UniProtKB/TrEMBL annotation:
The lineage of its organism: Bacteria, Pseudomonadati, Myxococcota, Myxococcia, Myxococcales. It comes from Cystobacter ferrugineus. InterPro entries: DUF3226. This is DUF4276 family protein. It holds the Pfam family DUF3226.
Length: 218
C-alpha cells in the first residue's frame, strides 16, 4: 500500500509508529482508500513521542503549512493537563482552541488572514474524555466475548506481584500485548491484527474516531 504523498496539503501527526499503523488500518477497515490518487489523502507522520509532536509546532510555522492538520496523541494520566499543553502550543501560533476537548474529537475551522491552514483537529486517545493511551483504545476493539481478554488483564496484574517490571501506567500495553501473544499467530503488530480482524473496528470510540477523521479530511 503506497503512502499518500509527503507533499499532501493534509497532514495527520501521531505520536509513534503503532499509532500510524493502527489509524491506517482502522480507516481501511472502514473503506478509506489510501491508494486513491484522485482524492486528497492525509500524509501520516510519526513524530516519535509527545514532545517531538508538539515542540516543533511551537518553534516553527509547521502548524500553518498545511490546509488541514490533525493531531492524535495520548491523553495519558490526565486529559485536562494534556489538553492544556495542546492549547498552549496552538495559542502561541495564534490559533485559539476550546477550553475542553470534544468527546466527538475536536475540530476547529480557521478563517484567519495569512494562515494557510483552514481546519485543525485533535483526538486524545482513547476517547477525548478519559485518561489513557492508544492501547486502551485498541483494547476496546477486542471481541467482547473473548475469554482470554479478562485473563490477560489478570495475569498482567499478577506479573507485578511475581517481580515483573511493568509499571502500572503501562498496564494497558502489557495487557494487549499479552493477549496478542496468545493468538494463532503470536504477537501480531496492531495494524496487522486489525487487518486480520483479530481486533474489531466498530466500538463506539472507533466509530467516533472514524467520523472525526472523515470530518477533518473530507
Amino acid at each position: 500500500m503506497p503512502p499518500p504523498p509527503k507533499n499532501s496539503p493534509y497532514r495527520l501527526i501521531v505520536e509513534g509508529p503503532d499509532d500510524l499503523h493502527a489509524v491506517t488500518h482502522l480507516m481501511k477497515r472502514h473503506g478509506f482508500d489510501w491508494d486513491d490518487a484522485a482524492r486528497t489523502r492525509p500524509f501520516i507522520e510519526s513524530a516519535g513521542g509527545i514532545d517531538e509532536l508538539l515542540e516543533p509546532l511551537k518553534r516553527s510555522t509547521d502548524a500553518k503549512s498545511y490546509a488541514r492538520l490533525g493531531l492524535v496523541l495520548d491523553a495519558d494520566l490526565k486529559v485536562t493537563d494534556q489538553w492544556a499543553r495542546v492549547r498552549g502550543c496552538f495559542s502561541s501560533l495564534g490559533i485559539l482552541l476550546p477550553d475542553a476537548p470534544s468527546a466527538e474529537g475536536t475540530i476547529v475551522d480557521i478563517q484567519q488572514p495569512g494562515l494557510k491552514v483552514s481546519r485543525v483537529g485533535f483526538w486524545l486517545m482513547p476517547d477525548n474524555q478519559q485518561p489513557g493511551i492508544l492501547e486502551d483504545f485498541l483494547g476496546r476493539l477486542v471481541p467482547v466475548d473473548d475469554p482470554c481478554w479478562a485473563y490477560a488483564d489478570e495475569v498482567t496484574n499478577q506479573s507485578r506481584a511475581r517481580g515483573g517490571r511493568l509499571a502500572q501506567k503501562d498496564h494497558a500495553k502489557g495487557r494487549i500485548h499479552t493477549w496478542l501473544a496468545w493468538q494463532k499467530e503470536p504477537g501480531m503488530p496492531f495494524g496487522t491484527a486489525l487487518t486480520a480482524k483479530l481486533l474489531g473496528h466498530d466500538s463506539p470510540e472507533a466509530l467516533r474516531f472514524v467520523a472525526w477523521f472523515q470530518r477533518l479530511f473530507s
